[in-house]
Amino acid sequence: MVMDHVQTLRCTLCSATYDPDQVIYTCPNHEGVKGILEVEYDYDVVLDRFEEAVDGTIPSQWKYRAFLPVHEETEPVTLNEGGTELYEAPNLSAELGVDTQVKDDGHCPTGVLKDRASSVSVTKAREHGRDVVTCASTGNAAASLSGYAARAGVNCRIFVPGAAPEGKLAQPLVYGADVLAVDGTYDEAYDLSTEATEEYGWYNRNAAINPFQVEGKRTVGLELAEQTREDPPDWLVFSMGDGCTIYGGWKGYREMADLGFVDDTPKMLGVQAEGASAIHEVFHDHDDVTEVAETLADSIAVGRPRNTVKACKALEESGGTSLLVTDEEILAAERTLGSTEGIYAEPAGAAPVAGVRTALAEGIIEPAESVCVVVTGNGLKDTKSAMKATGDVTHIDPDLGDVQELYGTNR
Ligand SMILES: *Cc1c(COP(=O)(O)O)cnc(C)c1O
Ligand SMILES: [Zn+2]
């Protein structure tokens, strides 16, 4: 059984190629996990199989099955991830001063864009006959993988930093995963998950090293291309942690352009938190790259991003750039997004909105351009951060007098 639409896995550093049907994570010619692999396709075969109408109707990401690195006979493990709404956002546009649309992936089944990748990787784990899947996660990847593992009936063992928001720890527990809260940082949890994978032969979903993860995430780009085909935005904005999501978004959009389904591609704007800025620093050629991860936007609190290579590729190829925002700006953006459009994002999901504000102030984005921000995660998982953004509720007695004190009498 071969995947005839998948040509090869190619190392982004030395161009060595590997059989896509092997379980391989990174190119062994390089130290650690540096040798990130890229999945390459035979687009004649992809196009042959992609018979769907590109008309904006997207039931789930599996509309793009022809693009995904799974065997023709394989039954996908899916909860109908993807196919998320692209909203016009007139109030937000007025507030920011630039024409803005919002793609809300907080509506994916476990509340996060990562479901696109989890669906693909659990499908791959089953193809390879693996009955244990694992990953390291700042929270969302763990919760997401756990849900899909439950769906597939495979065991899930995940490594998270002990400080992850409670909502993100409760969720994988409900999905029946073993949640190993590592007394350390995300980076330490990541290294431990890699060691455990080697020790036990579990199937590792870690996005940056599992070449198929980006392939799942890129359906967000395929969808965006389809949804904006009549008028591609000038800018497509993602937050960056390890850097896989933005590259997935770019690769998908670019493919749709290469295949003639859209005329133009957007510039990618990558947004990082000031306290976790490694990709931004590499992209802008800083001499010293700071390896800390100090931000309340836990999903992008990554000190040593595992996919800087692909993230920078997305920024470069698209003619885009990156910038940093503060935690205060992220929290303000969370509130702005919620109060202008009714979209509740977690901090990392709101960071792109903060990024647009900064980009406008710095003249990176022109007011006459158009922007699409991708909300990568749902705010309901992290109410603690949200309360920092909003301040407290108004406490009153069960007495109309207290209401009248606030709003006056209505006589
Ligand atoms: C994981 C995640 C990101 C960052 O994705 P990377 O692929 O690590 O860059 C952004 N937002 C949310 C909500 C996430 O869960
Ligand atoms: Zn290599």
Describe this structure in words.
The protein is α/β, with parallel strands linked by helices and 411 residues long. It has a domain of 204 residues: Rossmann fold, CATH 3.40.50.1100. Helix content is 38%, strand content 16%. Helix 9 crosses helix 11. The longest helix has 15 residues. It is globular, with a radius of gyration of 21 Å. The termini are far apart. Bound molecules: pyridoxal-5'-phosphate (PLP) and zinc ion (ZN). The site of pyridoxal-5'-phosphate has 18 residues, from helix 9 and helix 13.
How would you summarize what this structure contains?
The protein is of the alpha/beta class. It contains 15 helices and 13 strands.
List keywords for this structure.
15 helices; alpha/beta; binds zinc ion; 411 residues; Rossmann fold; six-stranded mixed sheet; globular; binds pyridoxal-5'-phosphate
